Amino acid sequence: MDQTERHILDQADHAVFVLEPDPKGVPRYVACNGYAQHHLGKSQGEILGRTAEEIFPGPPGKVVYDHHVEAICSGQARAFETVLPYRDGRRLTRTTLTPVCDGDGRAVLR
Length: 110
Prior knowledge:
35% of the residues lie in helices and 26% in strands.
């Protein structure tokens, strides 16, 4: 992700994450905006390259991770709600996943 794309992410007034499947198909965070970092109380170094299960230990991380895998495997957009730990307490969070797909409907890397 280049500097211009990162700047665009930082204009959003809500958490924005970008995931890409690694060579084994595991969805990993490859970008996030400043809003997400601030409200989660985590640095980019604590987020990038990790999975939802690594960032949000326990049941919430597993739920989010499973939705990530399903969106990648299906190539279909998904929306869900879950309670996640923020730096100032737990919050109900609504997430929308929108995979970027090839002509055959498979999620692709940029």
